[in-house]
Inverse folding.
């Protein structure tokens, strides 16, 4: 009886604190999801009424008609931009992840002269503002006539100092020295060891690096905006911003629909690969 | 070493070479003869561009603007990220997975798309936010002269709070259960435990996110560049140092752009270093 009387106020405070915590989290969730919810609702409204009426609830579902208009604009250039983005990001992230894995693994598992200096340089590169590379890269590329060439986007994209840093940490933590020794005793070559033993162990980190690099390249606006002036080569971000700036020639509704379409692939990728990026970020953050 | 080779070659070409190139070209200036009849020549004049930059009112204003931005936005964002991480980590939280994911979703929206989406939110004619609050007699002039910097700050905060929250949350998860158990035995309140135990223990994660955020602030470009055409003039073409440098490139003055980039990079490096020293840790990551 007395024990029960003592517990009661405690349970009340627990209930209050649960209510306060939930309320605060709900407010923050509203902040984070409101713009995306508005985007989803607006992209499904009849064309031309994207900015009128209630922005928070659906009316006259016309997403398909809107997509048709998006496709009709300038001979479907929007889909060309999407394809460009996916190719730049996919190829850049894939090659970048492979290079990072090789380099990070080498830094973690092999003793060689200058290892410390190299790792220091890679770390420093993570911290230097991108602008310091972007402007001179543009000048160098125009010097060798590589402007308006997909290589001008791809070459810088495959270098990911952050990926190397993450791979080094991950290789050191997840690939045991004894396994490598055993494989060497069995006569396996170094490349084979890397491919068949180290890569599977590092896989969660590699998926994370791929994902983050994919987003990083998708996010990089300054470089493509500078090196690609041909609008058939541009990624979707540069294309959409161009449309948005010409809002007299291009109806703003198209930018709304295009924005929705352009964020869907990344949202799906993040939701699908949750397990991996959470594990990867955790490893990168804690040490 | 063969493993490191491919990365090393590209790293040298895409990172080291541009830095050297920028540093060198910042020390030249283009000389055009008075009548413009002969081809312009490059003259080695190491300080000229730097002198010009430090006398350039627009460039200096952009540096000050970004500094103001960073001093306010970074603590606000990290404070928010820390509070969210602590809330989700707390014993009173339900639906942890949902809330964690909800705050992270904006990070999955690319920065340029985020800026586009928020430009709709800020629209002078039809801002959904103003529509929502107008019944209460409120109206936010998102592109007003004194407001616009904070409208930009809001986009950055929206995009990155969840990312920073996950990093801090991961650090919170690594606090040993015994420590928290001991606090509870001693009768510490949840708030007290958070403030005196959890926050100090996730210090290094907070420092890490702070340094990345400072570097991010210095590079502010995407958001103001996307908003500029719809800002009815309140975002100038020299709003941030990078916009200023890009403007110099567009005007054909590469050497001056290079000098501006070098100044920005040196400032960021110095600030990051001072920050590491002040927070008193020799991070050996």
């Amino acid at each position: 009886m007395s024990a029960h009387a003592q517990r009661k106020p405690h349970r009340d405070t627990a209930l209050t604190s649960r209510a306060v915590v939930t309320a605060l989290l709900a407010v923050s969730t509203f902040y984070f999801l409101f713009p995306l919810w508005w985007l989803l609702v607006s992209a499904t409204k009849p064309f031309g009424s994207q900015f009128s009426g209630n922005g928070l609830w659906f009316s006259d579902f016309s997403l398909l008609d809107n997509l048709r208009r998006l496709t009709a604009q300038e001979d479907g250039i929007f889909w060309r931009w999407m394809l460009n983005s996916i190719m730049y990001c996919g190829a850049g992230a894939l090659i970048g992840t492979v290079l990072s894995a090789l380099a990070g693994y080498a830094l973690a598992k092999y003793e060689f002269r200058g290892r410390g200096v190299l790792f220091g340089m890679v770390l420093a590169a993570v911290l230097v503002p991108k602008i310091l590379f972007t402007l001179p890269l543009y000048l160098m590329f125009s010097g060798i006539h590589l402007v308006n060439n997909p290589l001008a986007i791809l070459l810088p994209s495959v270098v990911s100092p952050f990926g190397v840093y993450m791979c080094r940490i991950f290789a050191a933590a997840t690939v045991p020295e004894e396994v490598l020794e055993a494989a060497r005793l069995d006569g396996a070559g170094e490349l084979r060891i890397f491919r068949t033993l180290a890569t599977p162990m590092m896989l969660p980190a590699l998926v994370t690096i791929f994902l983050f690099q994919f987003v990083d390249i998708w996010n990089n606006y300054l470089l493509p905006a500078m090196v690609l002036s041909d609008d058939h080569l541009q990624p979707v971000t540069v294309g959409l911003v161009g449309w948005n700036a010409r809002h007299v020639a291009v109806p703003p509704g198209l930018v709304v629909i295009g924005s929705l379409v352009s964020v869907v692939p990344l949202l799906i990728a993040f939701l699908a690969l949750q397990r991996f990026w959470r594990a990867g970020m955790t490893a990168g953050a804690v040490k | 070493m063969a493993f490191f080779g491919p990365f090393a070659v590209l790293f040298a070409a895409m990172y080291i070479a541009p830095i050297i190139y920028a540093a060198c070209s910042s020390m030249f200036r283009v000389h055009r003869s008075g009548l413009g009849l002969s081809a312009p020549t490059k003259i080695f004049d190491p300080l000229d561009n730097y002198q010009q930059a430090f006398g350039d009112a627009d460039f200096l204003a952009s540096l000050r603007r970004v500094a103001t931005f960073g001093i306010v936005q970074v603590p606000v964002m990290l404070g928010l990220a820390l509070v969210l991480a602590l809330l989700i980590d707390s014993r009173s939280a339900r639906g942890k997975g949902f809330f964690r994911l909800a705050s992270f979703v904006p990070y999955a929206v690319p920065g340029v798309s985020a800026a586009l989406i928020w430009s709709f939110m800020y629209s002078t004619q039809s801002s959904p936010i103003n529509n929502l609050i107008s019944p209460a007699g409120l109206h936010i002039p998102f592109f007003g002269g004194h407001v616009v910097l904070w409208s930009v700050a809001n986009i950055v905060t929206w995009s990155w709070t969840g990312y920073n929250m996950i990093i801090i949350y991961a650090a919170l998860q690594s606090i040993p259960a015994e420590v928290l158990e001991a606090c509870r035995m001693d009768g510490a309140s949840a708030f007290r435990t958070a403030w005196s135990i959890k926050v100090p223990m996730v210090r290094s994660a907070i420092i890490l996110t702070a340094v990345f955020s400072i570097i991010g602030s210095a590079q502010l470009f995407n958001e103001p560049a996307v908003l500029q055409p719809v800002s009815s003039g309140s975002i100038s073409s020299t709003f941030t140092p990078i916009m200023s440098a890009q403007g110099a490139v567009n005007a054909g003055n590469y050497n001056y752009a290079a000098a501006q980039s070098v100044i920005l990079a040196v400032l960021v490096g110095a600030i990051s270093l001072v920050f590491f020293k002040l927070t008193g840790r020799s991070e050996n990551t």
